[in-house]
Hints:
The protein is of the alpha+beta class.
Amino acid sequence: METTSQTALLGLLAETSIHAGAGQSGGVIDLPIQREAHTAWPVIFGSAVKGALRALAEERIETTAPWLTSVFGPDTHNASDHAGALLVGDARLLLLPVRSLTSHFKWVTCPALLKRFAADAARLGLPCFAVDAIPKVEGRDLALLPEPGPEALYLEEFRLRTESADFGTILPILAGLMARPDARDALGKQLALVDDDRFNHLAQFATPVNAHVCIDNQRKTVKPGALWYEETLPPDTLLTVALHAQGTRQQGQKRSAAEVLAHVTRDLLGERPYLQLGGNETVGMGWCKVSMQAAGVEG
């Protein structure tokens, strides 16, 4: 009996800064990044991820390829013809790089993020660590490390006491999402698990904010009012995206869910697993290294 749907999980490791803009400003930052409404954690909404995948497909694959419309859906003017066969979730935060005053930067996460990731993996039918394996963080002033470290760890302006904890089943899963050969060793040295409330503060206030100006070429001075502040996700941020593939609905272009998923994991991202997300592409922003995990697909 043919399977009606196929699932996969994409790991996106940022290699350059990412600006996926919120489209409106609610404070002193003129161009903030997208955030979840209930947690205020950074996110890249599924519509932006799907648009980036489609743009990549149109760039790398001939636009006349019959599967493009079947997989991603028709253009806006013909949107009522049929739905696309690829369902793309939000790019959810898993590891946030935070500068440390006492060491190399740390990949910071929290129990709430790890539990949500485990739930995503279970929904997709992919192997993952058990929720019981997530170490418990007792207090906002504690950071748990995979390896013994200094007694105190400074993350931004916070001084946290440290303890080592067992991340035995968690590290291999996280490393598999990072698409770099030294991921496990790097995580052993740089991973830090903090309290949910502490992470919430870091996720809101530890992201880079850069000032931009526009120069008057004749006078070589800043144009009046042409100063703005732009927020970004830093390089080395790790995000995950859930994919659900279904059979195609386009008349005359029938493909199974397995074929639809293969078009993305094999044809689109198989040989060159990179994806550009967000704005400012012409100044090198938004590039991610992509890993893929699915039944029979790992990379």
